[in-house]
Specification:
heterodimer, A: about 120 residues, mainly alpha, B: about 400 residues, about 0% strand
């Protein structure tokens, strides 16, 4: 060490170094932007393909409308389900938390002590 | 006569001990190592990295007689420490860490919201500014590149670039000097990685308003498995075609990611992301720490490297935040970016993303930024590796 000689000379940055530095930074920026651009374009393309497929399916569905026939039993089942669902609605919950206590019977196979002891043997 | 023999024997034993070879600079470094161990444990400062590193500093500075018939120090060819250091000198460890990292990270946040990738590039501005700053301060170009890459806050990229520059310079006297930078540069990079929770929050707070910190970002869409497999391959091709010199890092990173995302090589992905990366972190930490032998490390240059590294890291953090703010000008209200995640553009994975999330939570505990912040964070790793590759291509 043992001497301190700090230089401060902006002219040490040659024009070539400066250009290369900025160029290098731009390349990094462009590379990552290209990654982002690629993904955005890919997403757009995928969305376009999905919409196209959906449109095709809708057109086909419109061309041959399927007649939905519902029996009386089905209607009754839906009505019963809706009735049960709406009658079970709560305005406010109780916000009381309960803890269910679970007790386990002791077994050497699930014992923490034995497990730790067994692992210790391999150290 | 017998007394003389005993006296000589004791003198020989004494001369061999650390006490007789102790110099004040070794003492300082041992003290620094011990302080780092205590800080890392007490404040939970990235102990997984800092403890091996700090203990390495202590080990590397235990004084010994340099004229021993057996090689001992990390710089003595043939010593065990030197063999372990080989992985650092040849850039093997960083590549293996990138492999593990690739198998750990999920690219979904990046795929779901591609515009966040640009924040990873914006944070690289710290590297550019510091590179020029180091040249102004009289460092040669190769040294300046090694110092500037600290701004990425990724010790692995810093070690990789420095070792490759030293290797590329061949037998030139400059090569040995650049190789000597591995210790200070890696220590600075790892230290700033550990100090992310200390360095970044004040800058984030200073550069953002409360309103900006409260911005809620649109929830991310689900990414399909096909996308998770296809995009790493596209990224690999794109980035390595641009910067082939970064192939050892980027190739390994995307290889690790494919192992994970393919879903068929879970065993391999599990090994590289747990066992292998742990082993390499131990080896890299202890050897880089031990490379700070006082006679090589304790120079004014090292202090300057630390100062410039801190500057680089701070500018990188600020760069990411400012760029996010600029992007917000052009984005619709529903697509606004919380500028806090711009700070995650540095490659300190996942610490800087976690800090962005925590800062956001301090303002609004229901605002979860972590998944958004991971996108610039991963882009930061890729960006810094590309930058290292470009440095190698331009300098050598």
């Amino acid at each position: 060490m043992r001497t301190l000689s700090i230089v401060f000379d902006p002219s040490l940055i040659g024009s070539q170094t400066l250009i290369l530095s900025i160029l290098g930074y731009c390349i990094v920026l462009l590379t990552l932007s290209a990654m982002a651009y690629f993904m955005v374009r890919f997403h757009s393309f995928r969305d376009y393909m999905r919409t196209k497929k959906l449109k095709k399916e809708t057109t086909q569905a419109k061309a041959a409308p399927v007649k939905v026939v519902m029996t009386g039993e089905e209607n009754a089942a839906i009505a019963a389900a809706l009735y049960l669902f709406f009658s079970e609605l709560h305005d406010q919950e109780k916000y009381v938390m309960t803890i269910k206590k679970v007790s386990r019977t002791y077994s050497p196979w699930s014992s923490k002590f034995y497990n730790i002891w067994n692992n210790m043997k391999y150290w | 006569m017998k007394l003389l023999l005993i006296n000589n024997l004791f003198q020989g034993i004494w001369a061999d001990t650390g006490f007789s070879n102790l110099y004040w600079d070794n003492g300082i470094m041992i003290f620094v190592g011990l302080v780092l161990i205590v800080l890392s444990i007490k404040f939970n400062l990235k102990p997984i990295l800092l403890i091996p590193l700090a203990l390495g500093i202590v080990i590397g500075n235990i004084p010994f007689m340099h004229s021993t018939p057996y090689p001992l120090g990390i710089y003595a060819e043939g010593s065990i420490l030197h063999y372990l250091f080989f992985g650092v000198l040849k850039g093997i460890y960083p590549a293996l860490i990138f492999l593990g990292l690739g198998a750990m990270v999920d690219l979904s946040p990046m795929i779901a919201n591609p515009k966040l990738i640009i924040l990873g590039a914006a944070a690289q501005v710290g590297i550019l500014v510091t590179f020029l700053g180091a040249i102004i301060l009289g460092f040669p170009v190769a040294h300046s590149a090694s110092i500037a890459i600290i701004g990425a806050a990724d010790g692995n990229t810093a070690i990789f670039l420095t070792s490759q520059l030293a290797a590329g310079l061949g037998n030139l006297p400059e090569a040995a000097k650049v190789q000597g930078l591995i210790g200070p540069v890696a220590i600075a990079a790892y230290l700033y990685m550990a100090l992310v929770p200390v360095i970044q929050p004040p800058i984030m707070k200073l550069l953002t308003t409360k309103k900006e910190r409260l911005i809620r970002m649109k929830p991310q869409r689900t990414v399909s498995r096909n996308e998770k497999i296809a995009f790493p391959l596209v990224f690999l091709l794109l980035t390595t075609f641009v910067a082939p010199a970064a192939l050892p890092l980027l190739g390994m990173f995307f290889f690790g990611n494919i192992l994970k995302e393919s879903g068929l090589t879970k065993q391999l992905a599990g090994t590289v992301s747990t066992v292998l990366i742990d082993i390499v972190v131990i080896l890299i930490g202890i050897t880089v720490g031990a490379s700070t032998q006082a006679d090589v490390f304790l120079k004014w240059e090292s202090i300057l490297i630390f100062v410039l590294g801190a500057l680089s890291f701070m500018v990188a953090t600020a760069g990411g935040i400012m760029f996010a703010k600029v992007m917000n000008i052009f984005l619709k209200k529903e697509n606004q970016i919380n500028p806090l995640i711009g700070a995650a553009g540095v490659a300190a994975v996942p610490d800087s993303a976690r800090i962005a999330h925590e800062m956001g939570q301090k303002e609004d505990s229901t605002n979860h930024l972590i998944s958004h912040a991971m996108a610039p964070n991963i882009a930061g790793i890729i960006g810094s590796a590309v930058t290292a590759g470009l440095f190698l291509a331009f300098i050598l």
